[in-house]
Design goal:
There is one protein chain. By secondary structure, the chain is α/β, with parallel strands linked by helices. The protein has two domains: 3-43 and 409-501, Golgi alpha-mannosidase II (Immunoglobulin-like, Sandwich), CATH 2.60.40.1180; 46-402, Glycosidases (TIM Barrel), CATH 3.20.20.80. The chain is built from 13 helices and 25 strands. It has helices at residues 3-21, 65-79, 117-131, 153-160, 162-184, 209-225, 241-253, 255-258, 278-283, 292-308, 327-343, 358-365, 391-400; strands at 30-43, 46-51, 55-56, 60-61, 83-86, 91-93, 96-97, 138-141, 190-192, 232-238, 261-266, 312-314, 346-353, 355-357, 378-381, 386-389, 408-414, 419-426, 431-438, 444-451, 454-464, 471-472, 476-477, 483-488, 492-501. Strands 1, 17, 18, 19, 20, 21, 22, 23, 24 and 25 form a ten-stranded mixed sheet that branches. The protein has an eight-stranded parallel sheet with strand order 8-5-2-13-12-11-10-9. The protein is globular and about 75 Å long. The two termini are 27 Å apart.
């Protein structure tokens, strides 16, 4: 046996012994936690969303400066969102794409009047410029190929001249990047090329896996020819894990296409699926019994990423089927984040949208039920000028407020399947971060042991229960540099931070 496995076996025996000694007193159930700094996993990219400016060509800015400032602070300062795709398609009203006409018949000559530069200007002014002060610096363009809604004229070209179709698609990609570079001096590291191209939204209307591979190659080559040497694509972001795996396997199997892939993106739908539905999360992983099929497909995505040294990202989830303000939403999404990070080795986790408001909701859905909008980070009541951080936002915050880009997830194990733990080492800040989820209906006494690292000074952090979210913990003295004891309440999420030393 490996040293880590022997340690785990020993702690399991200690746990069983503690249970046997106190069979009638569940309030002192002990749990052994092992954090092994010598076993490293993925390097974290961050936590994100699809970013909307909530400005429309038809009705203008629905927030105004005061409410926008409150919302920006909630999303990027309080929750700590630092990355994600900028939705740069022009909307006449919420959820209604303004169809783009072909700029001209030459895909190698830009007619800038045919591109939606207004949307880029709004996104930069209303979101990026305001959020950068809070660390929002890892954004990239969602300059997606959308034949179904935004550019349906591409479907005709595809059917008559496939080669021209690829060049026209590549032109759209290049135009967006050129505009951001030449106007704002911004060249992101990534670009989201598709959002559910062949499944779900089916944004490559009538498209095939062959189309996806060819567009990746043609758009990637076009960017290189335009002087963008380093931009890579986040693909394919299909509706389900299986469909994402199938599409990205084809892309990565092509050596030319593979050169342009920066991250493997996937979604955990359809609606009502295990990781879309909060009740299902709480009935499976929340009871110590994660769904085997969902774990197996995540391990396949993980292994594919390892094979080609490409990170894996979970790039969208919504429709949790519970009130977005509820603690069930918070705990369910905290569990979801744990599972994506542990089983898929995901280095990025996205909620749905950065923010959403009552005016946009009514325009899009035809009703005033703002809280039917699930898994958006922040919800905004325009009438009362109230900004709500959702359970998804609070769940992400338990990670994103403390775990920054470049932190490394290290091995962590729990002797109790109802207590989940993820651990991270941030060398730039010389700290360790643990996120602990107690899914039991009683409190747990945690005995945390650190291997391969020592801590110094006091430990601090924050905790969420059904009563209150993100409550600061009283700093406590670390008497043992390689371990500590902590009692966590029933059904709680706790983040612990400590300074590490070599």
């Amino acid at each position: 046996m490996k040293k880590f496995d022997l340690l785990l076996l020993g702690f399991l025996l200690m746990y069983l012994s503690a249970c046997a000694e106190n069979p009638n007193d569940p309030t002192i159930t002990q749990v052994e936690i092992i954090v092994d700094n010598t076993r490293e996993h993925q390097t974290m990219e961050g936590f994100g969303a699809t970013h909307l400016p909530l400005v429309y060509e038809g009705i203008g800015d629905v927030l105004g400066p005061i409410l926008r400032a409150k919302a920006i602070d909630a999303v990027y300062n309080q929750v700590g969102i630092s990355m994600g795709n900028l939705e740069v398609a022009l909307l006449e009203s919420p959820g209604s794409y303004k169809q783009r006409a072909n700029d001209n018949n030459d895909p190698f000559k830009f007619n800038w009047k045919g591109f939606q530069t207004f949307r880029a200007d709004v996104m930069k002014e209303k979101v990026v410029d305001l959020a950068e002060q809070f660390g929002f610096d890892n954004y990239f363009l969602g300059q997606k190929i959308n034949v179904r809604w935004a550019t349906p004229w591409l479907d005709h070209i595809r059917n008559t001249d496939y080669n021209c179709y690829l060049d026209e698609a590549a032109e759209q990609v290049a135009a967006g990047q050129i505009y951001w570079r030449d106007t704002f001096g911004v060249v992101p590291r990534f670009q989201m090329l598709f959002n559910e191209p062949l499944s779900g939204n089916r944004e490559l209307l009538n498209g095939t896996v062959h189309d996806v591979v060819d567009i990746v190659k043609r758009a990637g080559a076009r960017l290189r020819n335009e002087g963008f040497r380093d931009i890579k694509f986040v693909v394919p972001n299909e509706e389900t894990e299986e469909k994402s795996l199938k599409t990205i396997t084809a892309v990565l199997s092509d050596p030319e296409a593979r050169e342009y892939v920066g991250a493997i993106g996937y979604h955990p739908y359809p609606y009502g699926s295990v990781y879309a539905s909060i009740p299902k999360i709480l009935r499976t992983s929340g009871r110590g019994k994660p769904d085997r099929k969902r774990i197996a497909i995540r391990k396949q995505l993980r292994d594919l990423g390892k094979k080609y040294n490409i990170p894996v990202w979970m790039t969208e989830v919504s429709h949790g089927e519970v009130d977005p303000r509820s603690f069930d939403n918070l705990r369910g999404r905290a569990i979801h984040i744990h599972d994506e990070l542990v089983y898929a080795n995901a280095s990025a986790y996205f909620g749905m949208n950065n923010m959403w408001d009552t005016i946009s909701h009514k325009e899009h859905f035809g009703n005033n039920d703002l809280f039917s909008a699930k898994e958006t980070i922040v919800l905004i009541d325009n009438d009362t000028e109230t900004v709500y951080i959702t359970g998804m936002g609070y769940a992400i915050g338990h990670y994103a407020r403390w775990i920054k880009k470049g932190a490394i997830r290290i091995e962590a194990a729990s002797s109790d399947p109802l207590v989940q733990v993820t651990a991270f080492r941030d060398d730039s800040q010389k700290c360790m971060v643990l996120v602990l989820i107690n899914n039991a209906s009683t409190k747990r006494e945690l005995n945390v042991n650190m291997a391969g690292v020592s801590l110094s000074g006091n430990l601090w952090g924050e905790q969420s229960t059904e009563i209150a979210y993100w409550q600061p913990l009283q700093p406590f003295i670390l008497n043992n540099p390689t371990g500590f004891m902590l009692t966590v309440p029933a059904k709680s999420v706790t983040t612990i931070i400590g300074q590490s030393r070599s």
